[in-house]
Specification:
Layout (H helix, E strand, L loop, with lengths): L1 H12 L4 E6 L19 H4 L6 H5 L8 E5 L27 E3 L7 E3 L3 H22 L3 E9 L15 E4 L9 H13 L4 E3 L15 E9 L14 H16 L2
Parallel strand pairs: 1-2, 1-5, 5-8, 6-7
Antiparallel strand pairs: 3-4, 6-8
Length: 251
């Protein structure tokens, strides 16, 4: 009985006053005047987009205590998840993507210019910081993503994982109860869960409040056909499961 009371107490500690859903990679749109559109992307480039994650994670009806922000442009033009001077820049996967094509005419494809990409990046970061500050202490930021089940430019050997949970080893790391509840929740639904695998860490923003950040990445095979880009029967099921998790995380 004593142990049960302690568990309930810890469970209460894991609750958050607010959730902020961060969706950086769901868009297929390029800014007006861009030299690129979604139709110009090849199969490898299209695998990089986190299709429908805005619909999967954001409740259709406004919900008290839950705010969200989705970046309105394609990550290939401006990737708001990257760092300034990101190590992936040398691979063409920094704030503004570029890619060396290994087929004729063997040119380098630039999906945007760095100045425009960084302007969008800075504006988005400023708005996210503003929202985090407004929500205040005890907010949990959920970094919402999907990943490809097929070899791609980010991961040449995708593991057999359904759900990936990521966090940072710093002051933004949620306590073990929060992480444990998320892992246990998806595991109880029959999903194979990876912790910081195949991707690690979670997005953070510099703000004058104390908050925590956790990344949730879902395998695209659970909800869509990566060839046709159409939703499958699993979409509604996964959306309901993801959004039911919020009731565990928020007071």
């Amino acid at each position: 009985m004593k142990q049960e009371k302690q568990s309930k107490k810890e469970g209460m500690k894991c609750s958050r006053s607010n959730l902020l859903l961060h969706i950086p990679h769901s868009s297929t749109s390029f800014p007006e005047g861009s030299n690129f559109s979604f139709n110009d992307l090849d199969e490898k480039e299209r695998l990089l987009i986190d299709y429908y994650t805005d619909e999967l994670f954001i409740p259709q009806q406004k919900t008290n205590g839950i705010d969200s922000m989705a970046f309105p442009f394609c990550r290939l033009f401006s990737d708001v998840e990257r760092l300034v001077n990101d190590p992936l820049e040398k691979e063409g996967l920094g704030i503004s993507y570029h890619r060396q094509i290994d087929e004729p005419p063997y040119n380098t494809r630039y999906f945007g210019d760095l100045k425009s990409a960084f302007s969008l990046y800075a504006d988005f970061h400023a708005e996210m910081a503003k929202r985090l500050t407004y929500l205040g202490d005890n907010t949990l930021l959920i970094d919402c993503h999907s990943f490809s089940s097929q070899p791609n430019l980010l991961n040449s050997n995708p593991p057999d994982i359904d759900i990936c949970i990521g966090y940072n080893e710093d002051e933004t790391c949620p306590d073990k109860v929060v992480v444990g509840n998320i892992v246990q929740y998806f595991g109880s639904l029959g999903y194979k869960v990876g912790i910081n695998e195949p991707f690690s860490n979670s997005k953070t923003f510099s703000v004058p409040v104390k908050y925590h950040s956790v990344m949730i990445e879902v395998n695209k095979r659970l909800y869509m056909d990566e060839q046709t880009l159409e939703k499958t029967e699993g979409f509604d099921k996964l959306r309901n499961e993801i959004q039911s998790l919020y009731r565990i995380l928020i007071k």
